[in-house]
Design goal:
The protein is an all-beta fold. The protein is 0% helix and 53% strand. The chain has a single domain (2-112), classed as Immunoglobulin-like (Sandwich), CATH 2.60.40.
Amino acid sequence: MRMIFDGIEGNKITAFKGIDSPNHFMTFMEDDGQPVDITAHTVTLEVYTTKQRTTVTKSHAASISVATGGIATIDLQDTDLDYDPSTYFAYGKIDSGGGSIRLGTTPVELVIS
């Protein structure tokens, strides 16, 4: 499964500690380009310190915008961005609530200044 962030797969976001970074769009697609139906699922942006996804640093909830189109919106508020300045790796996560969890295969680089 792929996650397209703000229209670009493998996007890079630069955000500033303590400053809002609103209105980001996450689109989930199968490898064949078909959207993932996220109806009745929980969608989050999982942030890790490495691409290996060993330990989640933070998890940010997203709002589902177009469920059958696989589109969710995330607003990163100033209180969310209390990371130490560094580069982090964020993956989209879909949780069906029934034990099925999927993570996007391509991370978004989240650079905190």
